[in-house]
Each structure stands twice: as C-alpha cells, then as structure tokens.
Amino acid sequence: MTIMIIILFIISIVLIGISYFQRDNVKELEQELDHLQLSAMQEIYKLKKKMRIVEEELLQNDTPLKETTTSMANDEAQNPARILAKFRQGMSLEAIALSESSTVEEIKLIVEKNERSLT
C-alpha cells in the first residue's frame, strides 16, 4: 500500500511537470483576440481620419460655391446700374448684352423697368 501511494505521488509530480511545459491554448487565443482588437481599432482610426479629411474637402468645396453665389447676387444687384449707365452713354442694347454676357431681351427688360429713372 505504501508503494502504491509513492507510485501515485511520483505520477502526479510527473503530470504536474508535463502540464507546465505543455502549450497553453487559452493564452494563445487571448493573445490572438488582443491582436485582432488592436488591428480593428487601428483600422477604425484610419477610417475616421479619412472620413474627417473627406468631410473637410467637402466643406472646402462648399464654401467657394456659397461665395460664388453671394458674389453673383452682388453682381446681379449691380448689373442694372451698370446697364443703365451704359445705355445712357448711348451704347446699343446688343453691345450692352455682349459686354454683360446676357441676352438682348434681358437688357431690354432691365432698361424698361428702370425707364422712369432715365426720364
């Protein structure tokens, strides 16, 4: 009986020694999971950075459009005054239309609307 206990004790020590040197699959899985999480976070960061750049480019492209429309509105407000000044100087409607890049009909309408200020 004592021999049997000694043999079991030796077997248990050998098994404990073997378990120390055996690979730990759970640790490997945890390391793989950590690596996967880190790479996913890096990809998300890169995507957010790219989205920020694209948004900034879109905002920069929108700004000139707004400025252009505002300047066009200012040009339209100044157009009748310039057109009337040219008409007073004796320029023909066709010449005014060419210089203002508009049609003769538009120039006629502007002159007719502002005819009261001419007389």
The overall number of domains is 2
Radius of gyration: 43 Å
* Helix-strand category: mainly alpha
Low-confidence stretches: none
Give the overall form.
rod-shaped
Task: Describe this protein's structure.
The protein is mainly alpha-helical. The protein has two domains: 1-61; 80-117, no CATH class. The protein has helices spanning 2-21, 25-88, 93-100, 104-113, 115-118. Helix 3 packs across helix 4. It is rod-shaped.
Features:
119 residues; mainly alpha
Architecture blueprint of SSEs:
Blueprint: H1 2-21, H2 25-88, H3 93-100, H4 104-113, H5 115-118
Task: Sum this structure up briefly.
The protein is an all-alpha fold. Helix content is 89%, strand content 0%. The mean pLDDT is 82.
